[in-house]
Amino acid sequence: MGKRVRARELGIEIGEMEPGRLNAITDVEGVGVGQVTLIRGDGPLKVGEGPVRTGVTAIVPHQGNPYEEKVTGAVDLFNAYGKSTGLPQVIHMGVIETPIMLTDTLNTWLVADAVLDYFREHYDILPLSINPVVGETNGGFLNDSFGRHVGKEHVFKAIDIARSSKGMGPVEEGNVGGGTPMTGYGFKGGTGTSSRVYEGFTLGALVQLNCGRREDLRIDGVPVGREIEMPSPEGREPGNSIMMILATDLALTSRQLGKVAKRAIMGLARTGSYGGVSSGDFVIAFTTGRESVDDFLEMMPERYSRGLGEGFLNIVYRAAADATEEAIINALFKAETMVGRDGNTRYGLPLDQVAEIFEKHGRSLY
Amino acid sequence: MGKRVRARELGIEIGEMEPGRLNAITDVEGVGVGQVTLIRGDGPLKVGEGPVRTGVTAIVPHQGNPYEEKVTGAVDLFNAYGKSTGLPQVIHMGVIETPIMLTDTLNTWLVADAVLDYFREHYDILPLSINPVVGETNGGFLNDSFGRHVGKEHVFKAIDIARSSKGMGPVEEGNVGGGTPMTGYGFKGGTGTSSRVYEGFTLGALVQLNCGRREDLRIDGVPVGREIEMPSPEGREPGNSIMMILATDLALTSRQLGKVAKRAIMGLARTGSYGGVSSGDFVIAFTTGRESVDDFLEMMPERYSRGLGEGFLNIVYRAAADATEEAIINALFKAETMVGRDGNTRYGLPLDQVAEIFEKHGRSLY
Amino acid sequence: MGKRVRARELGIEIGEMEPGRLNAITDVEGVGVGQVTLIRGDGPLKVGEGPVRTGVTAIVPHQGNPYEEKVTGAVDLFNAYGKSTGLPQVIHMGVIETPIMLTDTLNTWLVADAVLDYFREHYDILPLSINPVVGETNGGFLNDSFGRHVGKEHVFKAIDIARSSKGMGPVEEGNVGGGTPMTGYGFKGGTGTSSRVYEGFTLGALVQLNCGRREDLRIDGVPVGREIEMPSPEGREPGNSIMMILATDLALTSRQLGKVAKRAIMGLARTGSYGGVSSGDFVIAFTTGRESVDDFLEMMPERYSRGLGEGFLNIVYRAAADATEEAIINALFKAETMVGRDGNTRYGLPLDQVAEIFEKHGRSLY
Amino acid sequence: MGKRVRARELGIEIGEMEPGRLNAITDVEGVGVGQVTLIRGDGPLKVGEGPVRTGVTAIVPHQGNPYEEKVTGAVDLFNAYGKSTGLPQVIHMGVIETPIMLTDTLNTWLVADAVLDYFREHYDILPLSINPVVGETNGGFLNDSFGRHVGKEHVFKAIDIARSSKGMGPVEEGNVGGGTPMTGYGFKGGTGTSSRVYEGFTLGALVQLNCGRREDLRIDGVPVGREIEMPSPEGREPGNSIMMILATDLALTSRQLGKVAKRAIMGLARTGSYGGVSSGDFVIAFTTGRESVDDFLEMMPERYSRGLGEGFLNIVYRAAADATEEAIINALFKAETMVGRDGNTRYGLPLDQVAEIFEKHGRSLY
Fold first, then answer.
1. Is the pLDDT of residue D248 over 80?
2. Rounded distance, CA A124 to CA A115, Å?
3. Touching chains, D (3+ CB pairs < 8 A)
4. Whole-complex ipTM
5. Which residue in A216, A271, B235, C258 has the fewest CB atoms around it within 10 Å?
6. Full-prediction pTM beyond 0.80?
């Protein structure tokens, strides 16, 4: 099946906007991503022992202490089946005050609890109250989920990486961090990222992809899932849930970010998902606030400053939908075949077949 | 440009489910649609005189008195820029008690008021309180909108048609009823409809399409808008807003219908919209309640009855997204070029070019 | 029963904050209130003729053109049974762009439509789209509601008054404007207002009171409704619904105003309402934005600037609850007994009995 | 100060409805409450060691396995500052599938995680996904909150008690369970409960009270907080947040329960709270579904079956507001003075003074 590449390396470019330098959420200045991946053992499930196919992803909104310098945030509960922590308070207060963590469902609460310890041991504050934001998708098809193998040390390490120059660099995709055991459209899913820039403004998306039915997969409109030739995916539930994180440097209000978050769902829809009943499809958005909306407006053609005083949001909406769509495709493109507990297997999306299907649809890739 | 046909007549079939007999919202038994179209005058805009390019669409949930036999309903305020009436109460009470009316923005309130009169004069009740549901999109590019040319008699006639065997038949699409002056993806838009059936359950969608940017138009994934060759659409705002109405006969609760309504947005997203800032993208859903969920479950494969007790909704979600997507395409396919006030012109989607673009993308249409 | 006075004239002072100069919503600089009252005819109901007991209230957020200088706004749909127009867009955009109108239920849509005309004829703009905010309660116990006697001329006059020095002065209470036929806690209700000031910041409330059961009425905690001696109120439904309008000059965001709006409900609860099933209890809040939050914070004791960065809101919450509570009591105190259609009668709250009951509860009034 | 009694033992009866046999949430058949209280150590705070003033409360909706027999539920996020887990999914799915746990803020996530273990070890299932509902208020004024002293064994024990005949009996109030270290209106707060019955239907409330300012406290309308003579409460924040749990046996839908939940806020308002900025005021409601709405309607006077088909809810609203109000007062009445970390002290509400103040207000208590 050859080397796994990002969508853009194969010539697939979603939408008309340009990606940032890294085509990653870390194109938003200050944002850092740290991922810790745990892969250990094989064979039959022994709860508490393994096989282990899990991990944790940390996203810091800036390199400082987010509890002291909270960032403006918002949430969209599109399909709110899921155990994420901290979301009602983000909606209520309009701010995020911790790193955003992504992991496997049943590990959610221990990860939230470990974030609390991190603040004491690394940020050197004793929080009287803190609102860890943890998102999750269910990796139980490959992982000993009940075993909750992500511990305090992994959480600490993920945040430490996110708070470093490495964390602000390129983001590993596929079977890494919280995305390690996940499934996307019946193929191996996981972590994916992408970004868009426009006149000095940047928006980045990072997804933990674990949703969708194979037949529904669309890549840039091409019905890849329907035409691919492969045996049906194992397991009665071919994956479920997706966490979508959006970061921008444009100083939007929480109300505006909430509307931007909804456009991630539009990007998701374009890849074929119907937002299934047992899927939890959440969007968490934040802004570092580095770029003022006024400066942004000055650089835009006049028509964008119209539109109810918020016409400039159209660019941001477009960036959110496109970057989310491309992040989902990147997750599929980079995730390699993985064998997990009880021999359960998820196959990586066969990129050679994707290229052939694109060819059939009049689109030559590299 | 030849005869205007529905998408399916050209060989475009959205998704894997079957449409109903009419491929229209009226496939849901008892649902009736009445449309009154007003086209009058040409030349420069004289407010209050014309040119008139407007109309009104009435959708009755059943052939009885909806105030006395209210239907379970729900609303999704995805992009809630717009003047629709009655929506907060539908969300609160979970029922709809009047016909659903669709018209031009500035005519919204007079249409709501006329619905009140209709109840006294035709349903023979003197309402002490009633909640007319009126949706709107802005037809001001072609129509003398401020003139508010839809009067009581047109509202009455539209409801009368909806309450008749004609109203329960095929639904006219394109430049009819409330959809008369509307724009879709820079082309002439208007009214469109479609439906899906599955084991005795039916879901229908009707849209009043007035949103989208030409370059963004996708038809079944094919980037038609980007490849079509035509001069840029006139008018700085190439249309905005869409009303999406969903009807089903499956006896869902209001909470379930609310989730179904969100899937219409996924159908919209697949046609290319980003849900622009000055667009109002609303979904109103109702059920006639004729088909019990229990009966439905008996006819389904076992896997559908799983999934948190609501696994069967996956079929309904799919029907909602697919029928909405196809209804949007039908509106574009059936709407003919129209010249309106001040000579403003919207061109019908050139179906021959659509066929060529599909051909280029490896998809031969008829 | 003697002269009708405001609660404070009898010595009832709600909460610990000071009212503004007028103890009215018009204490917020620039806010104007105009009320047109229609009282005509007696005897049996003849639909379309009378008896007429109705009116309309206009609240302008400032003396300029609100469409061009929109004000930040928010809405709380606590008990969303009701036909108000414009609320979803206020929630979505976070702004209000027209006067806020209050009237009788079935007149809602004609009032909204008349607001549109007002903009052309008085503000000299031809709106292509506008979002009139109209609130309503149901006056049908006394008024020929179906007759919809509030016409364009009354709407125009109410807004004209609101846009004048008279409109910025004291606000008439009781049987005036939209409040004319309304019922409160089984007594005659109607329009009421109150305000609070604190270190240069002002918040005002205006209510159109039409809700509550007599036995539940509490005045500053005293169970007046339970102890008053009067025959049971006529009519099976002793009134329902309340519109609560909050205005402030503090430059809050829409998200913050939304939280302030919820505190009006707490003020309502203290007067005894349970938010009944057929009651529509809505709050609409806006800010003129004249006073910056930063200036406000400088004048406050340090402890108020703490509290999640929004500690200062505690003062605003308190003002909102207290002013709403007192506005409700003022409506009851000022509304005189009224006889309406079919001889239906609502009695004014007997203030002498109120004083006696307060006395019994250890509280001597004047 | 004498023996601490419940409000009703002193003659304070909130509202006109009757309480159930126990005047507790456990009057709802099958509902069980288990509380584990941890009080250990004195003197200066040593994080991780103590002093310990904490605990955990478990509420089981029935004596079976709630994951397998989920109960219909709803949530009101009135003032959504707080770290509760599981609430978005309850809103989304309309069901609760675990015991509801109440504890100290920073212990929230470990309690949620322990609930997961309980299902494996006691209900004998291996959950692949589960949504523990944990509510919290902040006990840090008296407790070593960061120490997170509530462990798995305490969670297990609390649920075990709730699942027993003891758990279905009278509920201990005051300094017990999750309520152990809490503050209410500047006095010692904690756990409180009350119930209402009507023609075979029962509704119970249980609160974990930790909010309010002393001066604002009202007891049945009497301004006790303003008139009581005591030194000002220590600590700059005199307590914050309240969790309100409602249980009923009436088979309401999730949409209806959501409206019932809002009435708990009205009960809270009557005790004087303004819903402060750093307060988290949450309501979680569920129904055991034992009593059908149809049966209930048959036993009611006709006027209750009217009102939009939901007129019967008025009784349920009243029960929710009244039971919540009384539960809050019971928490204050039963909670004894407590000294905690660093000698911090909260004084129990002086009941003798309460009686005197009532006397002054014309109300003789026993």
1. yes
2. 13
3. A, B, C
4. 0.96
5. B235
6. yes
